[in-house]
Predict the 3D structure of the following.
Amino acid sequence: MEAAHPNPPTRHPIFLFTHPRSASNLFMRLFSNHPEISTTAYSFFNAYMHGPEKQYRGHFPDPANPGGIIIDNSNETFQVAFERCQDAITSAMQENKSPLLKEHGFVITQPHIIKETLQLHPDDCPATTPRILDNNNNKQTTTSPPPTTASYTNPTLLPDHLLRSITPIILYRHPAKAIPSMYRALSKANSPPTSKNPDFAILASLAWHVHLIK
């Protein structure tokens, strides 16, 4: 019998910043059964598309569970999504696994960066701005100090301390393949992109990954 390693390797969270139609779901499936990896995908997606801090300007079909029941996203804030990420990281670490999280880059890019990059008209900007209170993964109790507004010096909605703790991976597909695929997918979802709607430009752009690299 092989003896247990006296000093197990340190597990670091891995965050996959993806682009729509880049085969990222296949990427995640390849690792989903790995005994040393715990995968979590799209924690922020429903907050971006459907929640009370919705950033998507057009109509996107409401998600449904396998039984066809529409999922209620009325309480799906970016704060809830952030805490879900923290819980996933903590749970994986407790199991001595490497957390692998995935989200599209545009979903967690700060709204003012999207506005400035695409030079959006104020009428095209969402009415709400996501806000995350940073509890640094410490669950609040009646005697705990209140969480503080997260510190951001990065282009994402992720607090600085979380971004510094992860190993980032950027995954994208050549635009000549990704953009037509994206257009077809949105059209099938009854959310066809139009010239007057900035959503398609946001989804198609690779600028959010460039900002992250900088």
